[in-house]
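# step 3/5: fold
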Amino acid sequence: MSRKLLVAIAIMSVALVGTAFAAVENIKVSGDINVQAVTRDLSLGGQDSDGEGAADPVDSKDYNPIDSEDFLFSQVRLRFDADLTEGVSAVIRLLNERLWGDDTTDVSGTDDIELDLAYIELKEFFYEPLTLIVGRQNLRYGNGLIVGDPDTNQLTAVGDARIGDLSLRKSFDAIRAIIDYSPYTIDVVFAKIDENATSVRNDETLFGVNVAYDWNSYDGVTEGYVFYRDGTNNAQDREGEDNVLTVGARAQFNPNDNWTLGLEGAKQLGDMQTGLTPSATASDSVQRDAWAAQFVSEYRFLNDYNAKLGLIYAWLSGDAPQALATEKNEWNGWDPMYEDQSIGELANALLANSGFQYVSLTGSMMPREDLTIGASYLWAFATAPLDDAADTTPSITGATGSPVAGNIYKIKRDERDLAQEVDMYAVLDYTEDVQINLNTALLLPGAIFDNQNEQLAYSVRLGMSVDF
């Protein structure tokens, strides 16, 4: 959104303030500001093919850029909630995410103000149990394994990719119908993820139904869902040739005051264009056959320090790229869909949420009533080879839209040990509105990485945030 347009909107808002006040009896303004200083290195060494240090990007085709970064950035959100006639409300929220000193308006969008939320909510819409929400809105189901972030938690489709993994934008352009038959709740969702050309059938869309049952005891919930995504990365501009049908279920409950236990499993079917894989050249589709499972638990000590421990184990099926170039005719790699999960700060930036299993241990406590400290440990293994058998220099390439976009990480064949990571954080409640936080992360590359990319990755973030 250009600055001239913002100025015009502001002038019109002031000019019409009297009329607006007469029509709207209650407008709530809120927001938050988050400022962080960051130093991090995600290069894992950033060496050239000879292992002699960084290559010259002009003279070498296999250059892996040194990704040691030092920068400050801010995230600002401004929200307006308007209560109109009975059962009718509207929400607008603006979002700006930018690096300090980078107030340009180039294609990276670093100076853009994004429309983060913009929806109308109609309660008891023609039918008492029905609520209809239309417009740009947040969608999240369960623990965010399937739906939670339109470009996944690893990437950003708008704004600056250098902080893509830290982006606050989670909204979808969607129509959502919520039918409340307590203790059952039925959500029916349609979302337009990417319009592409309006005259060509190459859109990316999401359809879904989520049915939740509230146990009314043990804080328990059971969910069953079906989500269908059509048109992702459709290189042939033809809908229906690349799609994912995800069917799954989730249950979570507290057997007592100390414990929370949860389990989720999902199966993926559909078609995948072979042209989307590194080793394939044909435009035919193959059948998807992938699955995921996740176990979550938390133990609360119920003491004066609010201490707690957590354990997560997940399995996300994978497939080697060469599988589509052989007679198998199916793809077993899990598609992240629109996940919103972070297994570890650095692992989340480096790895898509697919093709590995991991164990995550977490813990936190409050040594003072205004201070929270915590830590987590991650160990991840690939569930399938990550390289193509025909590739003479196997590697992983950083995903577009992530802070490691374009980076090339050399890997070894027949290895599965991906990484271990330790994260630590501290949050100080300076006042009721202001928090000061420190986040650190250290990642040890596993045996799968070649000696050219076996150096530690790290991140240190110091920030301050305010809510109003």
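# step 4/5: annotate
The chain has a mean pLDDT of 85.
# step 5/5: archive (pending)
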